[in-house]
Request: fold
Amino acid sequence: MAAALGEDEIDNDDYYSLLNVRREATQDELKASYRRLCMLYHPDKHRDPELKRQAEQLFNLVHQAYEVLRDPQSRAIYDVYGKRGLEVEGWEVVERKRTPAEIREEYERLQREREERRLQQRTNPKGTISVGIDATDLFDAYEEDYEEISGGGGGGGGLPHVEINRMHISQSIEAPLTTSDTAILSGSLSTHNGNGGGNINVALRRVTSAKGWGEVEFGAGDTHGPLFGLKIFRNLTSRCFTTAHCGMQFSSRGIRPGLTTMLARHLDKNTMGYLQWRWGTQSSMNTSIVRDTKSSHFTFAVQLGIPHTFIMMSYQYKFQDDDQTKIKGSVKSGFFGTVVEYGAETKISRHSVLGATVSVGVPQGVSLKIKLNRASQTYFFPIHLTDQLLPSAVFYATVGPLVFYLAIQRLVIRPYVRAQQEQEIEKQRESSASDIAKKKQEAEAAVLLMQESVRRIIEAEESRMGLIILNAWYGKFVTDNSRKHERARVIDVTVPLQCLVKDSKLILTEASKAGLPGFYDPCVGEEKSLKMLYQFRGVMHQVLCGDTEALRIPKQSHRIDNDS
Reply:
């Protein structure tokens, strides 16, 4: 059954919108809305054969929506899977006594099983490419007179010398063998100032239980020699876990053993504490606290070791925007000196994240680090600018990437993303053209069936100086002067909205209005709004609301002043 319900197959027909009720609607609210629509669409109210046929179709659709939502089990399935979930065979194995929460748990279990099967069908490649650039000649060049001597009087007017002094490439792939066993193949190549080497590793990981896994690793390379390692992960409690990694490196100088253990514990919902001990060529003890929330990420770490002893603190702020922008800063001080880093990263496309970090240290100097994450691949470019603390290097390392990014974003990224969005919208229109045509016919039929009811409602509202919908439009409105060339795509929904008026009130729930009786989607994939001009107690009112916003009229704030 899980396989039959792919992610792309879930139907999004909104029964709640059709009945104009909240997703949390009670049985009484469902029944009241159902009865009202039955009175409107009942086939026996129409003598014309064509109207009778259209009324019967709409009546059956309303009845189907009510029957699904009135049954707790069917409603829970519909809330999770959509309309198509009700058509899939296999739900008969779900006990009728199961609660909606239990059905949702069943859905999550099926999702996990489907994810496991999907994992078995892919290799999950991961890779990193790092290119180190020496650009110290830009800010810390030799004196001009020295250049004239060394260059034979050629002068110092040449271009600054920028070179690539190191590169590193690593790649890994995973090959699931069974549901519990995975083989991992990884390799890397490195070069620094003309000298380089590489290595290759093969690992076999087995999930022993829900609480842990183990991994055996074999490696070989031309720089360190053969390697044998063992990794273990184990959940000790629901809030605490431990890892251990032991290895033996074989070289011409003998066997170099190493051992790393870590103990981690959830201190609270958003905070983790870590204790790490490392024994081998670089022995150390490390303690760190990491707090990660929706809006920030904080790390504090202290390490005592040979040769590196330091204290480090970093903070990252996460903006709640579509680009997932983050700004960060850190301070690290130890026997090696002090380093201050600050930077930012932002999402530039659906699968790409671009970041830049400025590193200022003593005695390290000034560096600019640019990183691009593209899906599971990482491209890293550390650019060393100067060995000294020069204000000019700090200024250009900070301002240069920002100006460059803003220019690229305006000239390249935004036009590209806009073109991609337009292509996606066009594909949605083409794929849903037949469905939209059907919805349009249903909406037009519903409007015809509403005419008599709307006439009576208007007469009743006029007699009491009540709520009269004068004009209502739904779809895409062009209000930005820079987009005047675009054509507004809207439909007239005056009759459907007047039909929903009861006792001089109109209430629309938080759902897409495209599912309301007499509505359809005139611009698939684009942002839509509802614009309405109405009269209440003889006074004109106007309102504009978003597609999924709840609306309740009349309101004093919608009133149009005589001066305007």
User: Anything to note?
Assistant: The chain has four domains: 9-86, 124-139+162-279, 282-389, 431-563. The first helix runs from residue 15 to 19.
